[in-house]
Amino acid sequence: MPGTGCHIAFAEMVYRKISSYIPFQRDEFKSGNLIPDLSTEDKKITHYRKNASIEGLYIPDMKQVEKDLFKDDPIKLGIYSHLYLDERFIEEFLIPEFIWYKPRMVIINPRNGMEWYPTEFFKPNGIYYQAFDEINKCLIRDGYISMENIKKMPDILPNTGIPVYDNRQEKAWKKEVEEYITTKREYTGDVFDYEKLVRFMENTSTELARKIIKEK
């Protein structure tokens, strides 16, 4: 799944595209975009997980997500937005970006020939997650993430009325997010092509905004 910084930037991209058409509260919509990853419940439930097209990866079941969360409510729609990006990112960006070479059980980056074992690549605080530290720094630099806007968000995120999302630890979430997205790691591009990722996010945000505007 994409990092928290990507979800914050994506929420802003979508909001800017729909705000002239739908009078949603920005902070409520952005809060919804954060809530799924803050829940203490099983991610199989909070993220509606099903198998992706590559074995070992998972995506949200968007048919069920749409049924449950594509509502005229900024918080629920924010949660929907989070899961929408998760599904698109895995299937339309992450999987096509690499060669998933089963005979040797390695992940190969065709841009630079670098390769990793999946356990090394996806382990907590491993290569995949460190790559998002690089991306976050670029997103902040280019104005896709505003630290001032994050500071204005509520310390306690609003309830959704959905138990699995309201069972979460609110402990200093804002501080944790601020620390996470401001980790000092220089961009190398070893894993993700930043400019390509931003284009993907912009295009995906346009796709989602059009869907929201059309349906609402």
Task: Describe the protein.
The protein is mostly helical. The protein contains eleven helices and five strands, in the order αααββααβββαααααα. Strand 4 and strand 5 form a beta hairpin. Helix 5 runs antiparallel to helix 11. The model has no long low-confidence stretch (mean pLDDT 92).
Describe the structure concisely.
Helix content is 58%, strand content 6%. It is mainly alpha-helical and 216 residues long.
List the helices and strands and how they pair.
Layout: H1 4-18, H2 26-38, H3 43-46, E1 49-51, E2 58-60, H4 62-69, H5 74-97, E3 99-101, E4 106-108, E5 115-116, H6 118-122, H7 127-141, H8 147-152, H9 163-166, H10 173-181, H11 194-215
Antiparallel strand pairs: 1-2, 3-4, 4-5
Helix pairs in contact: 1-2, 1-5, 1-11, 2-5, 4-5, 5-11
Task: Please state the CA-atom Rg, rounded to the nearest Å.
Answer: 17 Å
Which residues form runs of ≥5 with pLDDT under 50?
Answer: none
Strand order of the largest sheet: 3-4-5
What is the overall silhouette?
globular
Helix/sheet category: mainly alpha
Distance between the termini: 27 Å
- DSSP helical segment count: 11
- Name the assembly state: single chain
Helix amount? 55-70%
List SSEs in N-to-C order: HHHEEHHEEEHHHHHH
Mean pLDDT: 92
The largest sheet is: 3 strands, antiparallel
Looking at this protein, list some descriptive labels.
globular; 11 helices; three-stranded antiparallel sheet; two-stranded antiparallel ribbon; 5 strands; 216 residues; mainly alpha
